[in-house]
Amino acid sequence: MKFYKELSKVYDVVFPKDENTLEFLCKNLKVNSKILDLACGTGSYAIALAQKGHRVDAVDLGEEMINIAKSKGGLYVNFALADMTKVKEVFQGSKYDFIFCIGNSLVHLENREKVQTLLKNMHDMLNYEGSILLQIINYDRIIKYNIDSLPTINRAEKGLKFIRNYVYNEKSSKVDFNTELVILKDGKEEKLENSVELLAIQSEELIAMLEKAGYSNIELFGGFQGEEYNDKTMALVIKANK
User: Biological process GO annotation list (predicted)?
Assistant: First the structure.
């Protein structure tokens, strides 16, 4: 699809590596940890973790994303083009100290049953006392306050703008995520539109899913600076242990 092909080219401009996020990912990691990055995008965090001495595997469904990731840090990370729901087969027999899935990627799965299965697979792939970290949009906030958009990402110096709108469907408990990527080329704007259905998984539901999958010590945060989670924070970040 043209939208994702063009987005992959500018992904690191639209979503640059954030040092607060990297620092949060590194918290409590032991030296030479074995790490799995699900839906790794262009691999910025996977590469940064590998450069800190960790052993990192990473998967993404987008071929363009994986190609860019390999070009950036193929010597550091074992990148694989794969659906994250198939990761148990892709890295058969592998065990990890830490598995993370950020960037609102979890809710892109087709249904809640697939989310539950993925969470169980992640649990199975963890070493004893291993941990996971998930980050999604705070759908408690979206639903309670009828939020219909996220702040536009404007990279004026690069001629880029990423517009993000939500339409919540109460019957299906999903949202239509409508996006527009605006690229300025030779003084003219090129607009690429896309719409994808996302699972509007709220905090209590996700906690219940994690408990069902066998996790313990579940902690909620409102962002990667470790702020307290509530129904007004933009993000939901969850850490849990095996």
Answer: methylation
Query: Is 66 in the same domain as 160?
Result: no
For residue 43, give the CATH number of its domain. Answer: 3.40.50.150
In this prediction the pTM is 0.96
**Rounded mean pLDDT, 188-203:** 95
Alpha carbons 139 and 142: distance in angstroms, whole number: 5
Same-domain check for residues 60 and 157: no
Tell me the three state secondary structure of residue 208.
helix
CA distance 198 to 187: 34
Find the length of the chain: 242
Which residues constitute the domain of residue 99? Answer: 2-137+201-241
User: pLDDT > 90: what percent of the chain?
Assistant: 91
Instruction: Give how many domains the chain has, as a whole number.
Output: 2
Of the pLDDT bands very low, low, confident and very high (cuts 50, 70, 90), residue 1 is low
* CA angle (53 as vertex; 48, 56 as ends), nearest 5: 65
pLDDT at 4: 80
Which has the closest alpha carbon to 215: 106, 127, 131, 94?
131
Residue type, 221: F
* Contact yes or no for 130/242 (Cβ under 8 A): yes
Residue-wise DSSP of 119-185: HHHHHHHEEEEEEEEEEEE-HHHHHHTT--EEEEEEEGGGTEEEEEEEEEETTTTEEEEEEEEEEEE
Torsion of CA 117, 219, 48, 13, to 10 degrees: 80
